[in-house]
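[step 3/7] inverse_fold.run input=structure_tokens len=261
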């Protein structure tokens, strides 16, 4: 690239199952709520792969080689909820089912996914320095919910698992607003980067930002307090509290406590 030529770079994060790491990148966070076992086990998965798309150099001012516009609102794409109801043979649970702990007989697995890409304009100021301006943040959101039950599960336990599903979907209803709130402050941000290889530095920087954004989205969305409270209210389906009542109460109480923070 010619010295002084602005360039656009976009860093894209995509997740693949099975690759686990920590700290940064595209975030895949999930939980499963297990019944008939104490304590409830929540697992957080952070699965990351970094993919990068570097776009070529371009002219001055606004541009659109990658199809992204000048600074505007974040682009949030919320995919439909992907729901599956699966039965399993307790003697031979399928390999893609989160393991049941001893005493558990059903669970609701909910995974919120987020995939951030950050677009920028980079202006070199000398051979080893450049100003990176964030021109676009794009977030793709998803929610995968799977209810796992053994064949012949009782209606009461099934209703309980559906309650976990309702809570996850309730949080997902406003997930796009959460994502937009997280992403908006990044737009227009200017940062100086330095290094012998400015393209590499710019890409690294954009990856960091994308990781920050997905981490923050996960933190702000967090449905886990409501899920835990729901299990607490229902004693993991072992008491007679009606699931829908417990969902309403769990959502109300966690929303109230979140407002106090
Ligand atoms: Zn539960």
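[step 3/7] decode complete -> sequence:
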């Amino acid at each position: 690239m010619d010295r002084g030529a602005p360039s656009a770079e976009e860093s894209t994060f995509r997740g693949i199952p099975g690759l686990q790491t920590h700290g940064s990148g595209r975030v895949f966070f999930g939980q499963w709520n297990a019944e008939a076992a104490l304590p409830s086990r929540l697992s957080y998965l952070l699965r990351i792969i970094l993919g990068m798309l570097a776009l070529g150099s371009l002219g001055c001012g606004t541009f659109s080689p990658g199809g992204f516009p000048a600074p505007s609102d974040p682009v949030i794409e919320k995919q439909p909820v992907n729901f599956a109801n699966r039965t399993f043979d307790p003697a031979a649970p399928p390999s893609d089912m989160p393991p049941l702990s001893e005493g558990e007989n059903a669970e609701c697995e909910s995974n919120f996914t987020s995939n951030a890409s950050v677009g920028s304009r980079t202006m070199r100021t000398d051979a080893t320095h450049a100003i990176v301006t964030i021109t676009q943040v794009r977030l793709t959101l998803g929610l995968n919910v799977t209810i796992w039950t053994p064949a012949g599960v009782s209606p009461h336990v099934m209703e309980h698992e559906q309650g976990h599903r309702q809570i996850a979907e309730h949080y997902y209803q406003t997930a796009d607003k959460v994502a937009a709130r997280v992403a908006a402050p990044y737009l227009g941000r200017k940062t100086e980067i330095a290094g012998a290889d400015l393209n590499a530095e710019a890409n690294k920087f954009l990856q960091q930002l994308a990781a920050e954004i997905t981490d923050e989205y996960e933190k702000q969305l967090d449905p886990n307090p409501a899920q835990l409270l729901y299990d607490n209210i229902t004693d993991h389906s072992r008491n007679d509290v009606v699931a829908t009542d417990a969902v309403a109460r769990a959502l109300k109480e966690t929303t109230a406590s979140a407002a106090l923070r």
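[step 4/7] annotate
Residues 1-29, 34-69 have pLDDT under 50 and may be disordered.
The helical segments are 155-173, 175-183, 198-221, 224-234, 243-260.
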